[in-house]
């Protein structure tokens, strides 16, 4: 029975739809927005160090929605300064969406964009082999380190290419989130592929401590409304189950005992809170800021 379960990532269109439902049901983007509005201006105040151009590297920038928000904060903090924004993103689909967004948006005149269709390790290998190493003023890795195989080597490399007063911003799920508990308790019974790994801020801060890299870590609350997961035959609930378990068609392929166990836990206070008749899964996010 368990062998019929397969990773959600093996069906790209189902993954994209379940991710869309996750964004609709969660406060993920509102939580990021709050951080960008309240904390980011202070964090980026000293980057660039009175240079005439600020260089930003976006790793796994996706379709660019969050990237453009970051760029507008940098513009506001450093008025009139030119910005050079390079994006490392393996999905051509995402790059196309990013370019569409840039084409539609106004007030980007002082920003030069470049996209590289490659993974972070392909980028690293290319610039090292061709001796094209540059220094960057701000590097961000937002909800993407799950897809990186060698996280310590990646963090060490990107830290080594920071300019003076530069910073790295990482966003991942928090070690206090329901994800941490779900992955620790059920990870070994859910289908895995080598595309994605379970990583939270607790793992990352341990890696950074081992590397001797200094950082600040901020946690912000976020929730995901999983009430539909408890309604039989609910299409939205099915897609959210898939996202939670990273399993394609979890509801129809999972062993009933496994589903019953997870369902019971999702109601427990370490995983979710109950509010206004809804079950809200703990989707807390961590924002890790690393200095040069
Ligand atoms: C969950 S999305 C986050 C997108 C964007 N940063 C955001 O927060 O809106 C993860 C992104 O990482 C990209 N990605 C996956 N593996 C990667 C890798 N090894 N290196 C760089 N980017 C990767 C994916 O294509 C996807 O666009």
Automatic annotation (TrEMBL):
<dbReference type="GO" id="GO:0045202">
    <property type="term" value="C:synapse"/>
</dbReference>
<dbReference type="GO" id="GO:0005813">
    <property type="term" value="C:centrosome"/>
</dbReference>
<dbReference type="GO" id="GO:0001695">
    <property type="term" value="P:histamine catabolic process"/>
</dbReference>
<dbReference type="GO" id="GO:0046539">
    <property type="term" value="F:histamine N-methyltransferase activity"/>
</dbReference>
<dbReference type="GO" id="GO:0032259">
    <property type="term" value="P:methylation"/>
</dbReference>
<comment type="subunit">
    <text>Monomer.</text>
</comment>
<feature type="binding site">
    <location>
        <position position="60"/>
    </location>
    <ligand>
        <name>S-adenosyl-L-methionine</name>
    </ligand>
</feature>
<dbReference type="GO" id="GO:0007268">
    <property type="term" value="P:chemical synaptic transmission"/>
</dbReference>
<protein>
    <recommendedName>
        <fullName>Histamine N-methyltransferase</fullName>
        <ecNumber>2.1.1.8</ecNumber>
    </recommendedName>
</protein>
<feature type="binding site">
    <location>
        <position position="142"/>
    </location>
    <ligand>
        <name>S-adenosyl-L-methionine</name>
    </ligand>
</feature>
<dbReference type="GO" id="GO:0005829">
    <property type="term" value="C:cytosol"/>
</dbReference>
<feature type="binding site">
    <location>
        <position position="28"/>
    </location>
    <ligand>
        <name>substrate</name>
    </ligand>
</feature>
<keyword id="KW-0949">S-adenosyl-L-methionine</keyword>
<keyword id="KW-0489">Methyltransferase</keyword>
<keyword id="KW-0808">Transferase</keyword>
<feature type="binding site">
    <location>
        <position position="89"/>
    </location>
    <ligand>
        <name>S-adenosyl-L-methionine</name>
    </ligand>
</feature>
<feature type="binding site">
    <location>
        <position position="120"/>
    </location>
    <ligand>
        <name>S-adenosyl-L-methionine</name>
    </ligand>
</feature>
<comment type="function">
    <text>Inactivates histamine by N-methylation. Plays an important role in degrading histamine and in regulating the airway response to histamine.</text>
</comment>
<dbReference type="GO" id="GO:0005654">
    <property type="term" value="C:nucleoplasm"/>
</dbReference>
<feature type="binding site">
    <location>
        <position position="94"/>
    </location>
    <ligand>
        <name>S-adenosyl-L-methionine</name>
    </ligand>
</feature>
<feature type="binding site">
    <location>
        <position position="283"/>
    </location>
    <ligand>
        <name>substrate</name>
    </ligand>
</feature>
<dbReference type="InterPro" id="IPR016673">
    <property type="entry name" value="HHMT-like"/>
</dbReference>
<dbReference type="Pfam" id="PF13489">
    <property type="entry name" value="Methyltransf_23"/>
</dbReference>
<dbReference type="InterPro" id="IPR029063">
    <property type="entry name" value="SAM-dependent_MTases_sf"/>
</dbReference>
